[in-house]
UniProtKB/TrEMBL annotation:
The name this protein goes by in its record: ATP-dependent DNA helicase Hel308
Domain of life: Archaea
GO terms of biological process kind: DNA repair
Residue ranges constituting the Helicase ATP-binding domain according to the UniProt record: 36-200
Amino acid sequence: MRVEELKSLGVDERVIRLIRERGIEELYPPQAEALKSGVLNGKNLILAIPTASGKTLVAEIVMINKILREGGKAVYLVPLKALAEEKYKEFKFWEKLGIRIAVTTGDYDSAEEWLGRYDIIIATSEKFDSLLRHKSPWIKDVKLIIADEVHLLGSYDRGATLEMILAHLRDKAQILGLSATIGNAEELAEWLNAELVVSEWRPVSLKRGVFHHGQLFWEDGSIEKFPSQWDSLVIDALKKDKQVLVFVNTRRSAEKEALLLGGKVQRFLSKPEERRLKQIADELESTPTNEKLKEALKKGVAFHHAGLGREERSIVEEAFREGLIKVITATPTLSAGVNLPAYRVIIRDTKRYSNFGWSDIPVLEIQQMMGRAGRPKYDKEGQAIIIAKTEKPEDLMKRYIFGKPENLFSMLSNEASFRSQILALITNFGVKNFRELIEFLEKTFYYHQRKNLEALEGKAKDIVYFLLENEFIDIDLNDQFMPLPFGIRTSQLYLDPLTAKKFKDAFEKLETNPNPLGVFHLLASTPDMASLRIRRKEQEDILDYAYEMESYLYQNIPYWEDYKFEKFLGEVKTAKLLLDWINEVPEARILETYDIDTGDLYRILELADWLMYSLIELYKLSSPKKEILEFLKQLHLRVKYGVREELLELTSLPMIGRKRARALYNAGFKSIEDIVKAKPSELLKVEGIGVGILEKLYQHFGVELPKVKAKKKQEEER
DNA sequence: ATGCCTATTGTGCAGAGTGCTACTG
DNA sequence: CTGCACAATAGGCAT
């Protein structure tokens, strides 16, 4: 279908003009089909088509057109923060029409009114759920919800959130669900009373195959011969001047394969490429993992997993897009994350370790990895190849290439999500009694799918009892629910009620024995913290530590036979790490002693920051003691900045974190006053303080020093 | 026969990723 | 279940 024909479907002229300005004249068949489905007239739609086949454009046309014609807001839900950022950049294009676009993820809060000024709001499901709980006034203006990757409804730990959002809004706003190909798309569409458009069409054709001992069995039946090792597939692609993406199932494998492949990739690099890569590698900070990354980078290869810091990840992604990096070995971070296609995708592993032992990776996920093959503007086709090791190649072919992806199942019954969702329904969404609760549950996909609420009712009852018992809610003589402040706040803070209960139970000990380790262990022991796991070899050391510090902890040390024992040690380890952090142990040493990666450290710190905040908020509700509150607030700041008490004044300044604050302090600038009084030239001698930083500081103080400007010029000239 | 080094076999361990607050500019 | 690190054992060689 030609873009002009959109006019006959009622699309605004301005939208059509801008699309053509982008150089798009012809819509892809599934796009056309989707737009003809009635979605432009307000009908709900589930669009199940492969990644990179133009879902976003459909969403854009529907959104913009709706806003131009009817006003109101559109909310675009994504599963990942990184994706929110990506979409924001894409949608910014429409600002030309006066459309205002905002992103809101956990990074900066905003239940607040400012979002009311925007037309398109991009959010993660959790963030939007949280906004719903805060009853943001603009929610009533939301006329359209777009759920990207709506198949994540079936994800064990995060699916329930998305399901509840859709259950809340399915009568109030138009819904457009963008999905990967799933087994039971019809069922999902039925639930949402939506039209369904399914297609396998891709703008770049995809050729799939299975590799086994030097034989590559393509899906069309043809067989290609290669040297017996699978890495020959990588070399082969490089000879064709193409890039490769290799998916593996552990971080360690990703690193190992990257270094191994590096030796074979290096000779394909041009001199300038080699120089650029070396330059990029040299700029990276030095940590154990980064050393490996640097080594690989110099050879034109990189690994990509959640242990990498944000900085490293985006450097790798960028360099791959530029074509500098020829091969990336990755864990699933890349299969679901940002869009990073390659000519050839190799899937080395089809099994993965989970909490329940080893299991086959779902068809849906493997197909998403395979979907990464083929760069729309550069390649005529993409290739996805699964490596068979012990498995029979024909089995893999049957399961992953010709097989149907799994059905989607409601994950509302997952206890942790259900607990938090029921609390929210009662405290934030005005559900007044058990009958109303059940009525609401009848709107869910869970009910649609099973037509039987008995199991869910039982669970709901248990949870309601739990909430009553622990004073999240109360109940009056007519069996009407009455939200209590503790419950309302727990729900708004987006805490697992179990976490909140743990906090509350610890208030007494907190008051009699306030100390950082005790608090950190409390945080670490909640279900909302991703505590470290303990290695066999560390067990003894950590246990010794726990005994040594027993008097500081708010919980007893369990017996070693106790199933909680290992978990407990992991929590102590996490608490110990946080203690090191606020005592200014350098990052590199923390990474080494706890044998973790940058990404893991940041994750723990981020969670600790949030939980510290939440702990304070809940403590405030309990007739708090002033000195305890002060202690907690100070500890929160120390966690946030990773510093001892004495640096807190300095870290309150912009651009001053733990490193610079320490450097300033040691150089004798111990307070803000010291800095204001100091000569700029003196400050510049301190490590980590340059002209740029100094300018920011003076700007903050509200003074401008001509001397600094002069200095800057000097430096620029150099 | 003894001591030392290397190759081979055995044993034990560990293993993906992710979101959620609110302040401020 | 698989790959890896490290330990235990066996084997080879010089003395």
